[in-house]
């Protein structure tokens, strides 16, 4: 199995965590812009974006589609709760991440990589990150994971994004620390100890340090 990816991408991190949690063996080829635009890659994902999972003759893109595929194809250990309500709650966290928090982090990340972090034009974007984090902080009640005792797909996307919340807010001059989000900090203190999370965080931090 191959996961085409960027090591510092929160979308790719989510899939890597799901693969590791399921004990699957996979390789993680890092893509470059030439590969993303190649006809072979576009045949796997016409959007020309990572992550893309290749599993034998089957290939698919979009992080949430991939983790749902993994759950269907390799159901043990499960990463979704049994109940319809639990599965819906898990998908709420995934959607909140993918549609709101993740894109906001990407906006602030691109400002940083373009050398525009902290400029006044991004003040409203930082404010929007604060609002999203406050909304999430008010909603969560980790016990110790977002849905209770089981680590699920609800938790997976937030592992790397929690780190990004801290480093990007600091880079833009308005650090969001554990003290601003104590419930999320409590969740991260437990979730980040999982081997899957620790491995993804280590790889992402090394890639970010390399520039
Ligand atoms: N909704 C997609 C987002 C994928 C995405 O934006 N991937 C970025 C990396 S995080 C990418 O491949 N960017 C390369 C490009 O757009 O050229 C998912 O969840 O997989």
List keywords for this structure.
3-stranded antiparallel sheet; binds glutathione; 211 residues; mainly alpha; 2 domains; Glutathione S-transferase Yfyf (Class Pi), Chain A, domain 2; Glutaredoxin
Name the structural class: mainly alpha
Strand order of the largest sheet: 1-2-3
Can you tell me the overall shape?
Answer: globular
Poorly predicted sequence stretches spanning 5 or more consecutive residues: none
- The level-1 CATH class of the largest domain: Mainly Alpha
* pLDDT averaged over residues: 96
Between the first and last Cα atoms, what is the distance in angstroms?
Answer: 27 Å
Q: Helicity range of the residues?
A: 55-70%
By DSSP, the count of extended strands is 3
CATH topological fold name of the largest domain: Glutathione S-transferase Yfyf (Class Pi), Chain A, domain 2
Can you list the ligands bound to this structure? glutathione
Order of helices and strands: EHHHEEHHHHHH
Radius of gyration: 17 Å
Largest sheet: 3 strands, antiparallel
Give the count of helical stretches: 9
The share of residues in extended strands comes to 5-15%
CATH architecture of the largest domain: Up-down Bundle
Total count of domains:
2
Task: Give the helices and strands, then pairings.
Layout lengths: L1 E3 L5 H12 L11 H5 L1 H6 L7 E4 L2 E4 L1 H11 L10 H30 L9 H17 L18 H14 L10 H10 L3 H16 L1
Helix pairs in contact: 1-4, 1-9, 5-6, 5-7
The chain binds glutathione.
The site of glutathione has 11 residues, from α4.
């Amino acid at each position: 199995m191959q996961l085409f990816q960027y090591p510092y991408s929160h979308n790719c991190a989510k899939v890597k965590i799901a693969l590791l949690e399921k004990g699957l063996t996979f390789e993680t080829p890092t893509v470059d812009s030439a590969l993303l635009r190649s006809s072979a890659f576009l045949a796997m994902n016409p959007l020309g974006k990572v992550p893309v999972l290749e599993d034998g003759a089957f290939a698919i893109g979009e992080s949430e589609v991939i983790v749902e595929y993994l759950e269907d194809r390799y159901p043990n250990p499960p990463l979704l709760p049994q109940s319809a309500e639990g599965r819906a709650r898990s998908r709420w966290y995934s959607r909140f991440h993918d549609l709101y928090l993740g894109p906001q982090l990407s906006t602030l990340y691109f400002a940083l990589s373009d050398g525009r972090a902290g400029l006044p034009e991004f003040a409203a974007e930082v404010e929007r990150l604060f609002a999203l984090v406050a909304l999430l902080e008010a909603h969560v009640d980790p016990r110790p994971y977002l849905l209770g005792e089981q680590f699920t797909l609800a938790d997976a996307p937030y592992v790397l994004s929690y780190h990004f919340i801290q480093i990007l807010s600091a880079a833009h001059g308005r650090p969001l620390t554990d003290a601003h989000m104590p419930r999320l900090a409590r969740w991260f203190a437990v979730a980040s100890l999982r081997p899957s999370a620790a491995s993804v965080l280590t790889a992402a931090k090394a890639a970010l340090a390399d520039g």
